[in-house]
Amino acid sequence: MIFLLIKYSKRWSHRLSVRTVGFHPTKRGSIPLGTAKNMPRVAIIENIHQDGINLLKENPNFEFEIIEDISEENLIKVLPKFDACTLRVSKLNEKIMSNCKNLKVISRHGVGYDNVDLDFLKKNNITLLITATANAVAVAEHVIYMMLSISKSINQYDQEVRIGNFKKNASTIKTLELFNKEILIVGFGRIGQSLIKRCKGFEMKVTVFDPFVNKEVIEKFGGRKIENLDQGLKVCDYLSLHIPLTKETKNLIDYSKLQIMKKEAIIINTARGGIINENDLNKALNENKIFGAGLDVFEKEPVDKNNSLLTNKKVLLSPHSATFTNECKSRMSLETTKNIIDFFENKIDKSMIVKL
Q1: Known active-site residue 190
Q2: pLDDT in the model for residue 9
Q3: N or C end: fewer C-beta atoms under 10 angstroms in the chain?
Protein backbone atom coordinates (compact mmCIF):
# COMPACT_ATOMS: atom_id res chain seq x y z
CA MET A 1 0.00 0.00 0.00
CA ILE A 2 1.34 3.42 -0.92
CA PHE A 3 0.89 6.26 1.56
CA LEU A 4 0.81 9.83 0.28
CA LEU A 5 3.14 12.14 2.16
CA ILE A 6 2.85 15.84 1.49
CA LYS A 7 5.89 18.00 1.00
CA TYR A 8 5.71 21.20 3.01
CA SER A 9 7.48 23.88 1.10
CA LYS A 10 9.12 26.82 2.79
CA ARG A 11 6.18 29.12 2.33
CA TRP A 12 4.29 31.41 4.60
CA SER A 13 0.91 29.92 3.81
CA HIS A 14 0.37 26.23 4.30
CA ARG A 15 0.64 25.10 0.71
CA LEU A 16 1.84 21.62 -0.01
CA SER A 17 3.13 19.40 -2.77
CA VAL A 18 2.97 15.63 -3.06
CA ARG A 19 5.50 12.83 -3.11
CA THR A 20 5.02 9.15 -2.33
CA VAL A 21 6.75 6.88 0.11
CA GLY A 22 6.14 3.29 1.08
CA PHE A 23 4.44 3.30 4.47
CA HIS A 24 2.00 0.85 5.99
CA PRO A 25 0.47 2.29 9.19
CA THR A 26 -1.78 -0.74 9.68
CA LYS A 27 0.66 -3.47 8.67
CA ARG A 28 1.86 -5.65 11.52
CA GLY A 29 2.18 -9.16 10.19
CA SER A 30 -1.18 -10.17 8.75
CA ILE A 31 -3.30 -8.69 11.57
CA PRO A 32 -5.91 -6.20 10.26
CA LEU A 33 -6.56 -2.82 11.85
CA GLY A 34 -8.92 -3.05 14.80
CA THR A 35 -7.96 -6.47 16.14
CA ALA A 36 -6.89 -6.73 19.74
CA LYS A 37 -3.17 -6.96 18.99
CA ASN A 38 -3.20 -4.06 16.60
CA MET A 39 -5.77 -1.55 17.86
CA PRO A 40 -4.15 1.91 17.75
CA ARG A 41 -3.99 3.68 21.09
CA VAL A 42 -4.55 7.43 20.98
CA ALA A 43 -3.44 9.94 23.61
CA ILE A 44 -5.57 13.08 23.76
CA ILE A 45 -3.07 15.52 25.27
CA GLU A 46 -5.22 18.18 26.94
CA ASN A 47 -8.97 17.90 26.71
CA ILE A 48 -10.75 18.84 23.50
CA HIS A 49 -14.38 19.43 22.55
CA GLN A 50 -16.61 16.44 23.23
CA ASP A 51 -17.53 16.06 19.56
CA GLY A 52 -14.00 15.00 18.71
CA ILE A 53 -13.82 12.63 21.65
CA ASN A 54 -17.12 11.07 20.62
CA LEU A 55 -15.75 10.39 17.15
CA LEU A 56 -13.07 8.18 18.69
CA LYS A 57 -15.42 6.72 21.25
CA GLU A 58 -17.82 5.57 18.55
CA ASN A 59 -15.08 3.92 16.50
CA PRO A 60 -14.47 0.32 17.66
CA ASN A 61 -11.03 0.20 16.03
CA PHE A 62 -9.39 2.70 18.39
CA GLU A 63 -8.62 3.05 22.08
CA PHE A 64 -8.01 6.45 23.60
CA GLU A 65 -7.07 8.14 26.85
CA ILE A 66 -7.25 11.79 27.86
CA ILE A 67 -4.04 13.12 29.41
CA GLU A 68 -4.68 16.23 31.48
CA ASP A 69 -1.32 16.35 33.28
CA ILE A 70 0.84 17.83 30.52
CA SER A 71 3.99 18.23 32.59
CA GLU A 72 7.14 17.00 30.90
CA GLU A 73 7.63 14.44 33.65
CA ASN A 74 4.20 12.92 33.15
CA LEU A 75 4.36 12.89 29.35
CA ILE A 76 7.71 11.09 29.49
CA LYS A 77 6.06 8.48 31.68
CA VAL A 78 2.75 7.85 29.90
CA LEU A 79 3.24 8.69 26.23
CA PRO A 80 5.39 5.68 25.17
CA LYS A 81 2.41 3.31 25.16
CA PHE A 82 0.52 5.28 22.49
CA ASP A 83 0.56 4.97 18.71
CA ALA A 84 -0.85 8.46 18.12
CA CYS A 85 -1.57 11.64 20.01
CA THR A 86 -3.42 14.90 19.64
CA LEU A 87 -1.68 18.10 20.59
CA ARG A 88 -2.92 21.54 21.54
CA VAL A 89 -0.52 24.06 23.11
CA SER A 90 1.67 21.80 25.24
CA LYS A 91 5.18 21.08 23.97
CA LEU A 92 6.54 17.81 22.62
CA ASN A 93 10.32 17.89 22.65
CA GLU A 94 12.95 15.23 21.99
CA LYS A 95 13.22 14.40 25.67
CA ILE A 96 9.53 13.51 25.80
CA MET A 97 9.39 11.65 22.50
CA SER A 98 12.70 9.78 22.62
CA ASN A 99 11.09 6.78 24.35
CA CYS A 100 7.91 6.85 22.26
CA LYS A 101 8.85 3.92 20.03
CA ASN A 102 5.23 3.27 19.04
CA LEU A 103 4.38 6.85 18.10
CA LYS A 104 3.51 7.12 14.41
CA VAL A 105 1.47 10.30 14.12
CA ILE A 106 0.79 13.58 15.92
CA SER A 107 -2.43 15.41 15.11
CA ARG A 108 -2.29 19.12 15.91
CA HIS A 109 -5.41 20.79 17.22
CA GLY A 110 -4.66 23.80 15.02
CA VAL A 111 -2.39 24.75 12.13
CA GLY A 112 0.81 25.95 13.85
CA TYR A 113 3.45 23.52 15.04
CA ASP A 114 6.18 25.55 16.70
CA ASN A 115 5.54 23.51 19.89
CA VAL A 116 6.81 20.28 18.30
CA ASP A 117 10.41 19.15 17.76
CA LEU A 118 10.26 18.90 13.97
CA ASP A 119 13.78 17.52 13.61
CA PHE A 120 12.91 14.61 15.86
CA LEU A 121 9.75 13.86 13.88
CA LYS A 122 11.69 13.86 10.64
CA LYS A 123 14.46 11.60 11.94
CA ASN A 124 11.95 9.12 13.34
CA ASN A 125 9.41 9.15 10.49
CA ILE A 126 6.59 10.45 12.66
CA THR A 127 3.84 12.10 10.63
CA LEU A 128 2.52 15.52 11.62
CA LEU A 129 -1.07 16.47 10.81
CA ILE A 130 -2.88 19.81 11.12
CA THR A 131 -6.52 20.92 11.14
CA ALA A 132 -6.18 22.73 7.85
CA THR A 133 -9.81 23.70 7.30
CA ALA A 134 -11.40 24.09 10.75
CA ASN A 135 -10.33 27.49 12.06
CA ALA A 136 -10.38 29.93 9.14
CA VAL A 137 -13.82 31.44 9.79
CA ALA A 138 -13.30 31.94 13.53
CA VAL A 139 -9.92 33.62 13.09
CA ALA A 140 -11.17 35.85 10.27
CA GLU A 141 -14.10 36.96 12.43
CA HIS A 142 -11.71 37.67 15.31
CA VAL A 143 -9.68 39.95 13.03
CA ILE A 144 -12.82 41.85 12.06
CA TYR A 145 -13.82 42.13 15.73
CA MET A 146 -10.43 43.61 16.61
CA MET A 147 -10.46 45.98 13.65
CA LEU A 148 -13.89 47.32 14.59
CA SER A 149 -13.20 47.51 18.32
CA ILE A 150 -10.00 49.51 17.85
CA SER A 151 -11.36 51.68 15.03
CA LYS A 152 -14.45 52.60 17.04
CA SER A 153 -12.50 53.05 20.31
CA ILE A 154 -15.20 50.89 21.84
CA ASN A 155 -13.37 50.28 25.13
CA GLN A 156 -13.12 54.02 25.74
CA TYR A 157 -16.78 54.58 24.93
CA ASP A 158 -17.78 51.73 27.21
CA GLN A 159 -15.72 53.14 30.07
CA GLU A 160 -17.13 56.65 29.61
CA VAL A 161 -20.70 55.37 30.00
CA ARG A 162 -19.82 53.25 33.03
CA ILE A 163 -18.21 56.13 34.94
CA GLY A 164 -21.15 58.42 34.28
CA ASN A 165 -19.69 60.70 31.64
CA PHE A 166 -21.99 59.53 28.87
CA LYS A 167 -21.47 62.17 26.12
CA LYS A 168 -19.16 64.43 28.11
CA ASN A 169 -16.04 63.30 26.24
CA ALA A 170 -17.58 61.28 23.42
CA SER A 171 -16.88 63.85 20.71
CA THR A 172 -13.19 64.03 21.63
CA ILE A 173 -12.57 60.29 21.22
CA LYS A 174 -11.12 59.52 17.81
CA THR A 175 -12.85 56.82 15.79
CA LEU A 176 -12.43 55.49 12.27
CA GLU A 177 -14.45 53.74 9.57
CA LEU A 178 -13.55 50.57 7.69
CA PHE A 179 -15.37 51.78 4.58
CA ASN A 180 -13.05 52.48 1.63
CA LYS A 181 -9.96 51.81 3.76
CA GLU A 182 -7.10 49.62 2.56
CA ILE A 183 -6.14 46.44 4.39
CA LEU A 184 -2.89 44.61 3.75
CA ILE A 185 -3.21 40.86 4.31
CA VAL A 186 0.17 39.18 4.75
CA GLY A 187 -0.20 35.48 4.01
CA PHE A 188 -3.02 34.26 1.80
CA GLY A 189 -3.86 30.78 2.99
CA ARG A 190 -7.33 29.70 4.12
CA ILE A 191 -7.54 32.34 6.87
CA GLY A 192 -6.42 35.15 4.58
CA GLN A 193 -8.94 34.01 1.98
CA SER A 194 -11.69 33.89 4.59
CA LEU A 195 -10.75 37.37 5.81
CA ILE A 196 -10.83 38.99 2.39
CA LYS A 197 -14.47 37.94 1.92
CA ARG A 198 -15.44 39.74 5.12
CA CYS A 199 -13.38 42.83 4.28
CA LYS A 200 -15.11 43.11 0.92
CA GLY A 201 -18.40 43.15 2.81
CA PHE A 202 -17.22 46.37 4.47
CA GLU A 203 -16.29 47.73 1.03
CA MET A 204 -12.61 47.80 1.90
CA LYS A 205 -9.77 47.77 -0.60
CA VAL A 206 -7.59 44.69 -0.17
CA THR A 207 -3.94 44.19 -1.04
CA VAL A 208 -2.15 40.90 -0.41
CA PHE A 209 1.52 40.15 0.17
CA ASP A 210 2.30 36.49 -0.31
CA PRO A 211 5.18 35.58 -2.64
CA PHE A 212 3.86 32.05 -2.99
CA VAL A 213 0.37 32.78 -4.29
CA ASN A 214 -0.31 33.63 -7.91
CA LYS A 215 -1.70 37.00 -8.84
CA GLU A 216 -4.68 35.33 -10.51
CA VAL A 217 -5.71 33.57 -7.30
CA ILE A 218 -5.65 36.81 -5.30
CA GLU A 219 -7.55 38.71 -7.97
CA LYS A 220 -10.19 35.98 -8.06
CA PHE A 221 -10.95 36.85 -4.42
CA GLY A 222 -11.09 40.56 -5.21
CA GLY A 223 -7.65 41.49 -3.94
CA ARG A 224 -4.55 43.05 -5.46
CA LYS A 225 -1.18 41.32 -5.20
CA ILE A 226 1.89 43.34 -4.26
CA GLU A 227 5.48 42.18 -4.58
CA ASN A 228 7.11 44.33 -1.91
CA LEU A 229 6.09 44.34 1.76
CA ASP A 230 7.30 47.87 2.45
CA GLN A 231 5.25 49.11 -0.48
CA GLY A 232 2.11 47.77 1.18
CA LEU A 233 3.01 48.94 4.68
CA LYS A 234 3.40 52.53 3.55
CA VAL A 235 -0.14 52.82 2.22
CA CYS A 236 -2.27 50.38 4.25
CA ASP A 237 -4.77 51.48 6.87
CA TYR A 238 -4.93 47.99 8.39
CA LEU A 239 -2.38 45.20 8.53
CA SER A 240 -3.38 41.61 9.30
CA LEU A 241 -0.78 38.87 9.65
CA HIS A 242 -1.46 35.25 8.65
CA ILE A 243 1.93 33.58 8.36
CA PRO A 244 3.80 30.99 10.45
CA LEU A 245 6.66 31.89 12.77
CA THR A 246 9.92 30.92 11.09
CA LYS A 247 13.50 32.17 11.07
CA GLU A 248 12.51 34.36 8.14
CA THR A 249 9.38 35.82 9.73
CA LYS A 250 10.62 36.36 13.29
CA ASN A 251 10.56 40.11 14.03
CA LEU A 252 9.31 40.70 10.50
CA ILE A 253 7.43 43.75 11.78
CA ASP A 254 9.99 45.77 13.72
CA TYR A 255 10.47 49.46 14.39
CA SER A 256 11.85 50.13 10.91
CA LYS A 257 8.62 48.77 9.43
CA LEU A 258 6.31 50.42 11.94
CA GLN A 259 7.69 53.90 11.40
CA ILE A 260 6.92 53.85 7.67
CA MET A 261 3.24 53.10 8.27
CA LYS A 262 0.42 55.64 8.43
CA LYS A 263 -0.21 57.28 11.80
CA GLU A 264 -3.78 56.01 11.68
CA ALA A 265 -2.76 52.45 10.78
CA ILE A 266 -3.97 49.51 12.86
CA ILE A 267 -2.09 46.21 13.13
CA ILE A 268 -3.76 42.86 13.94
CA ASN A 269 -1.82 39.69 14.72
CA THR A 270 -3.73 36.44 15.15
CA ALA A 271 -0.95 34.30 13.65
CA ARG A 272 2.02 33.75 15.95
CA GLY A 273 3.80 35.80 18.58
CA GLY A 274 7.30 36.85 17.58
CA ILE A 275 6.35 37.97 14.08
CA ILE A 276 5.94 41.46 15.55
CA ASN A 277 8.73 42.71 17.78
CA GLU A 278 6.75 43.54 20.92
CA ASN A 279 9.16 46.12 22.31
CA ASP A 280 9.23 47.93 18.99
CA LEU A 281 5.44 47.84 18.78
CA ASN A 282 5.08 49.32 22.25
CA LYS A 283 7.56 52.08 21.35
CA ALA A 284 5.78 52.87 18.08
CA LEU A 285 2.41 53.10 19.83
CA ASN A 286 3.76 55.38 22.53
CA GLU A 287 5.30 57.62 19.86
CA ASN A 288 2.01 57.70 17.94
CA LYS A 289 3.63 56.11 14.90
CA ILE A 290 0.45 54.04 14.44
CA PHE A 291 -3.09 54.27 15.80
CA GLY A 292 -3.46 50.93 17.55
CA ALA A 293 -2.89 47.18 17.57
CA GLY A 294 -4.82 44.01 18.30
CA LEU A 295 -2.88 40.97 19.52
CA ASP A 296 -4.20 37.47 20.04
CA VAL A 297 -0.70 35.94 20.15
CA PHE A 298 2.48 36.77 22.01
CA GLU A 299 6.16 35.96 21.90
CA LYS A 300 5.86 34.31 25.30
CA GLU A 301 2.63 32.61 26.34
CA PRO A 302 1.21 33.03 28.92
CA VAL A 303 2.21 36.67 28.67
CA ASP A 304 4.86 37.83 31.12
CA LYS A 305 3.21 40.10 33.68
CA ASN A 306 5.98 42.64 33.07
CA ASN A 307 5.26 42.87 29.34
CA SER A 308 4.85 46.59 28.66
CA LEU A 309 2.02 45.97 26.19
CA LEU A 310 -0.23 44.90 29.08
CA THR A 311 -0.44 48.48 30.29
CA ASN A 312 -0.63 50.11 26.87
CA LYS A 313 -4.19 51.30 26.28
CA LYS A 314 -3.66 51.43 22.53
CA VAL A 315 -3.50 47.66 22.35
CA LEU A 316 -6.48 45.30 22.36
CA LEU A 317 -5.50 41.91 23.76
CA SER A 318 -6.95 38.40 23.74
CA PRO A 319 -5.36 35.19 25.11
CA HIS A 320 -4.64 33.26 21.88
CA SER A 321 -8.35 32.60 21.70
CA ALA A 322 -9.35 33.51 18.14
CA THR A 323 -10.44 29.91 17.55
CA PHE A 324 -12.37 29.58 20.81
CA THR A 325 -15.88 29.87 19.41
CA ASN A 326 -18.12 26.93 20.26
CA GLU A 327 -18.45 26.12 16.58
CA CYS A 328 -14.73 26.24 15.88
CA LYS A 329 -13.83 24.16 18.93
CA SER A 330 -16.20 21.49 17.66
CA ARG A 331 -14.78 21.60 14.12
CA MET A 332 -11.19 21.51 15.33
CA SER A 333 -11.77 18.58 17.67
CA LEU A 334 -13.53 16.61 14.93
CA GLU A 335 -10.81 17.33 12.40
CA THR A 336 -8.07 16.51 14.91
CA THR A 337 -9.42 13.04 15.73
CA LYS A 338 -10.66 12.35 12.20
CA ASN A 339 -7.15 12.97 10.94
CA ILE A 340 -5.86 10.21 13.21
CA ILE A 341 -8.58 7.80 12.13
CA ASP A 342 -8.02 8.61 8.46
CA PHE A 343 -4.26 8.22 8.88
CA PHE A 344 -4.54 4.65 10.17
CA GLU A 345 -7.20 3.83 7.58
CA ASN A 346 -4.93 5.12 4.80
CA LYS A 347 -7.33 7.82 3.60
CA ILE A 348 -5.89 10.98 5.10
CA ASP A 349 -6.60 14.20 3.20
CA LYS A 350 -3.27 15.33 1.74
CA SER A 351 -3.87 18.94 2.82
CA MET A 352 -3.65 17.84 6.46
CA ILE A 353 -0.09 16.44 6.24
CA VAL A 354 3.00 18.54 6.86
CA LYS A 355 6.24 17.60 5.13
CA LEU A 356 9.04 18.14 7.56
Answers
A1: no
A2: 41
A3: N
